[in-house]
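User: Before I run my own analysis I want an independent prediction to cross-check against. Here's the chain; please return only the structure tokens and, at the end, one sentence I can use as a sanity check.
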Amino acid sequence: MNNFLVGLQFLTRITVKKNLDWSEKACGGSVKFFPLIGAVLGIVYVIAGYIIYFLLPQHDFHPSAHLTGFILLALNIFLTGALHCDGFVDTMDGILSGRTRERILEIMKDSRVGAHGATALILLIIGKFCMFSDLEAQLALTALFLMPIIPRCCMSSAVINFPYARKEGLGKAFHEYSGSRDMLLASFFTCLVSVLLGTIAIIAYILTTLIMYGFNRYVSRLLGGLTGDVYGATTELGEFVVLFIFAIAQIFI
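Assistant: Structure tokens:
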């Protein structure tokens, strides 16, 4: 339970009022729970979605698509404290700079935001806003539940399956104290949820996993491994991919 709560408190802004063991081993032990932590977030998103898409219309209040998109996007950012957005910005600043490995790692560690990171974040936020706005009631709750789960399974994969690029760093403990058994548990949970939620969910799971594995493989070759910032970028990009797949699926049903 401690490992799950450590991961929950680290990856979200859900406060856990308990004295936790924040050892490196506990951090590594939380990796297998990343998709389950995503499920906790997914439940919150589903509750918000149910209110917007079903409860409010019963009382003759119909939020516009833009207002719905803004509410869901704000909730998405608020619940994670923009932790993954920060990693996404630093990652884009680094890998889009076209510099050497050493310089890229320096850029990613710099607290200042560069043009590449700012531009990429703007595009990401606009993209997620559009996807949230385009969700229809028929698939919205499934998409909102899966959106945080699948990318966090991809983050587990990034932590376990690729080396850590720095000699030390916040994400190193997660990598060193997790292993293939943790990956198996994270994948089993995500696969089971996807199968239970139907064909589109399975497609989203397979495609997002392949796309984000390819992204992590590219960055790992570029940097000689991954960093905590790349873990965050994996989550943000993975959420966009899941939403995009559901938005496209709506056209064919």
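Sanity check: The chain has a mean pLDDT of 94.
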